[in-house]
Amino acid sequence: MFVVLVLILTTGCTKNQAAESARQTIELTVSAAASLTDALNEIQKVYGAKQPAVKLNFNYGASGSLQQQIEQGAPADLFLSAAPKNMNALVEKQLVDTNKQRTVLGNELVVVVPADGNLPLAGLNDLTKAEVKRVAVGIPESVPAGSYAKESLLAAKLWDTLQTKTVQGKDVRQVLQYVETGNADAGFVYRTDALTSKKVKIAFAVDAKSYSPIEYPFGVVKATKHPKEAEALYTYLHSKEALDVFAKYGFSQPKR
């Protein structure tokens, strides 16, 4: 009887501990630019080991779309944007505190082609060649990579010329997929995206002087229900450990 009683008490204690542990777990929703996917997935594991009571849920997408979601009240604790304009819009609407947002990363725009192809592309003008049937670009209004691509093509006076060839992606990862699957002969993506895929290769880097600096501001959303945990994650994303992970995936630190 004594053994049975001990087992019952022990089992009950275990169940209570599990329930208590579940109640103590804090879930943070991070709305992040699609180009950050691979780096953040690694950071999720590292941070989870350091903070087991905090679970990170990532909502990946185009920065413009994520901005609109936050404006419409979608739950988010942090916003990691691929363009300052999307963060600035939320600061102006007082949805992100200007003192709790900061530019953390930089990137570079490149044009990729299928890895097994032999299409010779050395610059933007080559996109007008007859052999190039489709050019993938992110939707400029909502995808920062698409906006940067449009800037560069306008500077080269090629935006209108290429309209009949252009196919638009809902985010930079869809643009990458178009090229990977052969649904586009070339596509504008970040260097970091190009490095994640063995199915594409970089044809050329777009002249950085032809588009705005690519900067990634991170910020804490005011509506967070877990400000302490959200700010702790925000601080961690600026740490050397996190920056080393981002660097591993090709991100740079913004030039000042």
Question: What can you see in these coordinates?
Answer:
The chain has 256 residues and is an alpha/beta fold. Helix content is 39%, strand content 24%. It is built from 9 helices and 10 strands. The protein has helices spanning 2-24, 37-50, 63-71, 84-92, 144-155, 172-180, 191-196, 227-236, 240-248; strands at 26-33, 54-61, 78-80, 96-106, 109-114, 135-138, 166-169, 186-190, 200-205, 215-221. The strands form 2 sheets. A 5-stranded mixed β-sheet has the order 2-1-3-10-4, sandwiched between helices. Strands 7-6-8-5-9 form a 5-stranded mixed β-sheet, sandwiched between helices. α2 (37-50) links the parallel β1 and β2. The chain is elongated. The model is unreliable at 1-11 and 17-22 (pLDDT under 50).
Task: Please give a quick description of this structure.
The chain has 256 residues and is of the alpha/beta class.
**Can you give the helix content as a percent range?**
25-40%
Number of strands: 10
Report the structural category: alpha/beta
Gyration radius from CA atoms, angstroms: 22 Å
Per-chain topology:
Blueprint lengths: L1 H23 L1 E8 L3 H14 L3 E8 L1 H9 L6 E3 L3 H9 L3 E11 L2 E6 L20 E4 L5 H12 L10 E4 L2 H9 L5 E5 H6 L3 E6 L9 E7 L5 H10 L3 H9 L8
Helix pairs in contact: 2-9, 3-4
Give me some keywords for this one.
five-stranded mixed β-sheet, disordered N terminus, 256 residues, alpha/beta, elongated
